[in-house]
Amino acid sequence: MNCSIAIQVLPEVEGEEVLRIVDKVIGYLKSTGLNVFVGPFETTIEGDFEQLMDILKHCQLICIEEGAPSVMSYVKISYKPRGRIWTIDEKVAKHHS
Known about the structure:
By secondary structure, the chain is α+β, with helices and mostly antiparallel strands. The chain has one domain (3-90): Alpha-Beta Plaits (2-Layer Sandwich), CATH 3.30.70.
């Protein structure tokens, strides 16, 4: 594992529709089989850089396919091509026990 991405998708829709679409994106992220951590403002996923870039692209497409005319996303990427990054658990487990 050489990459971790935190993503917040903001589909341009009104009211509860935002939650419905965001839940679809989170469901997709969980379906990848990768380690996913859902937070109140963003969701973090760990894996291989190339795989995560494809997943990131698909998150945008889900929002559009679900009816949003546009989507804004805020993304943080930790990438270490020759080595290992700190895992989600290494960063936050001590705060959730």
